[in-house]
Amino acid sequence: MISPFPLLGKAPPPVIQPLKNGLADECAALHATAFRYSWGEHEFERLISASNAFGDAALDPRKKALLGFILSRVAADEAEVLTVVVASAHRRRGIGRQLVASHIARLRNVHVKTLFLEVGETNTAARKLYGDLGFVEVGRRKNYYRTEQPAEQIAALVLRRDIDPTQRRGWDA
Ligand SMILES: CC(C)(COP(=O)(O)OP(=O)(O)OC[C@H]1O[C@@H](n2cnc3c(N)ncnc32)[C@H](O)[C@@H]1OP(=O)(O)O)[C@@H](O)C(=O)NCCC(=O)NCCS
Q: Which residue lies with its CA nearest to atom 12 of ligand 1?
């Protein structure tokens, strides 16, 4: 039977907008849920307000709560993703893909031609997401990350995404 209330209980799509300093505390809290070495609120304030920083936030349109964010640092025509995270309760809804794609489009507008990032070799979710969005592996840093349980040293893969200034694809235009 078709539900008479098809949208009831279904989360509305997030709003993607530039990351503002007022969200530094929420960024720190969210970051701490995903990374062993997390950055505090003041660190995020410093990063977000830096003149060469570009961030995008995914917000719940109803509560304005932070669902995810991405933050990069730009130098000349290159940029490096410093971090990207989506709240665990909201993963696999396409938010990560939307954040990274919107971010690429915004970096293109400020004339960034190449975007780099590092990802743990065992981070299947992130590697799949980046691969889908056109990132390619260009390097490998052995024993770069350390995990606790089990205690392991994991390689970081260096990924690169060329940003063609003339290109306008559906997912990153
Ligand atoms: C990586 C991360 C940002 C992905 O966010 P997300 O909102 O769940 O990603 P999306 O829903 O947009 O997924 C996009 C694609 O990525 C891949 N993907 C995402 N999660 C996956 C998982 N758990 N397993 C396998 N593939 C996965 C899939 O290809 C997915 O597309 P599909 O759902 O159509 O199959 C999120 O898992 C996260 O915050 N992880 C912890 C922090 C982290 O590792 N950040 C990256 C550091 S480099």
A: 94
